Amino acid sequence: MPIDPTKPYDDSNIFARILRGELPCKRIYEDEHALAFHDINPLAPVHILVIPKGPYVSWDDFSARASDAEMAGFVRAVGKVARDQQLEVQGYRLLANIGKRAGQEVPHLHVHIFGGQPLGPMLAR
Question: Where is the HIT domain (predicted)?
């Protein structure tokens, strides 16, 4: 169910629980600012989620409240994961859903990295 990104951070969300080690994930990258892991319901041959370690509901929340170090670290982590997966040669797509109309389902900022096949149009109509 889509969430309201204007609500306060809910620390019982699935990504907060993964960050605390309460739930497993197929981890592929971690540093002080970000965690990257394979999506449990992949929509492409490569489907990775990258999440900041801080409690941010959405991109709006993150861009308003995160420190410069958190922002730089998160963006660099997304790029590193894509390069480590060798996606830059064939291309890849980044997606961050924010809010109800975009279909955000988890109230923790996350970026999807899709690759490994032609990805089609940007939006389905």
Answer: 14-124
CATH number of this structure's domain 14-115: 3.30.428.10
**At residue 18, does pLDDT exceed 80?**
yes
Question: CA 111 to CA 34: how far, in whole Å?
Answer: 11
Domain ranges of the chain: 14-115
If we measure between CA atoms, which residue out of 11, 13, 80, 6 comes closest to residue 50? 80
Q: What percent helix, strand, coil does the chain show, rounded to 5?
A: 25, 20, 55
Neighbours of 5 (CB within 10 A): 19
The string of pLDDT tens digits covering residues 42-86 is 999 999 999 999 999 999 999 999 999 999 999 999 999 999 999
Nearest to 114 by CA among 31, 50, 21, 35: 50
Instruction: Give 62's contacts (C-beta < 8 A, 6+ positions apart).
Output: 52, 54, 56, 70, 71, 74, 109
* Residues annotated catalytic, as ranges: 110
Smallest CA-to-CA distance from 93 within 51, 56, 26, 43 is with 43
